[in-house]
Input
Amino acid sequence: MTRFLLQLVALTACLLLAASSPALATLQSAQEAGSQAGAAAGADATTSPVAGGDAAASRRLQAKLGTDEDLKDVTASVDDGVAELDGRVLQPTHRKEAGEIATQTPGVATVVNNVEVDDSLGAHFHAAWKQVTGKLVAIAARAPLLVVAIGIVLLAAWAGGVLSRNLRILRLRTENPYMDGLIRRSVRITITIIGVLLALNLLGLSTMVGAVLGSAGVVGLALGFAFKDIAENYIAGVLLSVRKPFSPGEHIRIDSYEGKVVALTSRATILMTLDGNQLQLPNALVFKSVMLNFSQNPRRRFDFRATMDAAHSIRQAQALALDAYSRIDGVLDDPAPSWTVVQNSPAGIELQFFGWVDQRSSDLGKVRGEAIRLVKSAFARAGIQPPRTVYHVVLSRESENPAAPPSPVEPAHGASVDTSVNRDIDDQLADAQRADAASSGNMLDHDKDAP
Output
């Protein structure tokens, strides 16, 4: 019985073992499949981030290259961190720039630069033509702003011209014609510059204006050394306009140069000589030289000398001479004519006579000439002779030689004598001043209200 029970237990165990073997195999198969799936998943988990990083790096690199117009024909691909560049560019610097962009792209460890430089004439011409057309298209797109900017500049220039011609509006009018001209030009230039700055700001070029103004100091210093003489003449012209040592049309002498003032420019002072020739003197020379202004004081003295023989009376000659030329129309009574003895020598007695004229109504040279003529006539009528330095020897009898005819004597009157102001070069002077006022290259304008 016991044996039978043991056999029954063993048979039951075998049956159970036989029944459980397929399920166990199925379970093992499932476990193996699960482990294989896990391994595959693990393998995918380790390989798919790398594949995804290369694709993202390729996209980033291609996007960066596409933003540069010079590198738009370059293609890029990234495989296992190695970026390969292909395509054609126009300059070697473009090829180098493409390599630098690839190196700086995240996810790229190595760069293989296969980009070629295209040296063909057609490629360069096509690129230049495309660049020009692009600029023209950009200008055309900004044409309305450009038109408005040009209008602002023109309006500022017009407003500057109007205000410079009407300084009374700004209460900047002066009696100095040269300073008045400097203020006019300064007002015109200032308003025009303001208009240019507004136009550049409208076009979005204000940063360029700042850069230009920042470098103006350095450029000005360099130009100051290079054009020292020009700068010196310009500054001297400004100082002359402030000091106003002369006015247009006045008769002046600078060193050995003499003439009437035509204009004061940024570089030179223009005179017209009494011969009608134009004379330009550097402003620095005019500012540093000794200047004689004949027109500043309307009263001007003239003088002349007369020599007579020592046998005659000095007092008689003096009285005759003063009485003769004091009656000339143009000789002033205040100050009255005067005289002095220069010397008394064996060669004769030399007398010097003085007189005053008003230059606004009489010409100095004409009055002086008429005074000399009348004094000579008075001396001749009174028998006052010049020094007898010439000896006359008579070689024949008086009966054989008839008496020589008497020498003509100067008339004693001064009727119809012209002593008016000399106007010989006045018309030429006025023409030169008008031409100078109409010139755009002059630093200072003339006073338009001056006679």
Summary: The two ends are 164 Å apart (CA to CA). The first helix runs from residue 2 to 67. Residues 1-51, 440-451 have pLDDT under 50 and may be disordered.
